[in-house]
Design a protein that fits this description.
By secondary structure, this protein is mainly alpha-helical. It contains eleven helices and no strands. The relative contact order is 0.13.
Length: 272
């Protein structure tokens, strides 16, 4: 078993410190009693109360959560379908074009994606609002779901589907009863990734959002330009807490699914 060298240990420590120390400082100063975010004046939770009374931030948070849930759910369905076609569809006419269109948002700059979607919505006469943001976020997050699910389908044992078909299942039933439960951890991971990307997006949302559909990143960016307030620290702390709980829950679900899958495989091997 290879041990980490001192160089790797120091590099990892510095890397994690660079990533997480600013977040820790932000969380600490969210409990600062002073209006100045750089001057500590004692422990207080009043900024969380101020945040709960700020309707602008609450409305933006509601729009962001609504967009993230809708876009990630649609992107998960479409991305899973696209991954299944790419992995199981074999060679068909237009496969190269189809895969290129699926993976294009991975390498396309967000400014180009946002501008092109804005021109599309203007061209078809669609008013900008929650719907346009959902469509835009679905477009660029679907490719990430497709990549995650494709990596699981590539290592999937096709003999399990064939056994289900031999036992009388239709292709749709075999997918629903056999394939989908096995690739569920990848599908859940894709949904969480799409949800996080939508929750964090600023560039594409700024092109496709309307006056009455301001998302939380846009609202925070506009507020920070006038100076960082302790309310923004409190809001960021709440978001960090939600994401942390979501990641832990998803990890536990994925681990439980993997353990259950290993037990099923062992029982199947013993039965043979």
């Amino acid at each position: 078993m290879n041990r980490l060298s001192w160089f790797n240990t120091v590099s990892l420590t510095l890397g994690f410190a660079f990533l997480y120390i600013p977040m820790v400082i932000l969380v600490i100063f969210s409990f600062n009693a002073s209006k100045l975010v750089t001057v500590w004046a004692g422990f207080s939770t009043k900024w969380y109360g101020e945040l709960l009374g700020n309707e602008a931030f609450l409305d933006a948070a509601w729009v962001t959560l609504k967009v993230a849930v809708l876009s990630s759910s649609i992107a998960t369905v479409l991305g899973t379908m696209a991954a299944y076609v790419l992995v199981r569809g074999g060679r068909f006419l237009g496969r190269t074009l189809f895969s290129g269109m699926i993976y294009a948002p991975l390498v396309m700059p967000e400014v180009i994606t946002g501008l092109s979607l804005l021109l599309l919505f203007i061209g078809i006469g669609l008013d900008r609002g929650v719907l346009t943001i959902v469509l835009a976020h679905t477009t660029f997050s679907m490719c990430y779901v497709s990549v995650v699910v494709s990596s699981r389908l590539v290592t999937f044992d096709k003999s399990l589907e064939e056994a289900a078909l031999d036992l009388g299942c239709s292709p749709a039933q075999a997918f629903r009863l056999v394939t989908l439960p096995i690739i569920a951890p990848a599908v859940i991971s894709g949904w969480l990734l799409a949800f996080t990307l939508s929750l964090d997006d600023l560039v594409i949302a700024s092109f496709t959002a309307g006056p009455s559909s301001t998302t939380l990143p846009i609202k925070i960016f506009s507020a920070v330009r006038l100076g960082v307030s302790p309310e923004i620290n409190a809001l960021s702390t709440v978001m960090i807490s939600i994401v942390t709980v979501g990641v832990i829950a998803a990890s536990l679900v994925s681990k439980r699914s993997m353990v259950r899958q290993q037990k099923d495989e062992q029982e199947a091997a013993r039965a043979q």
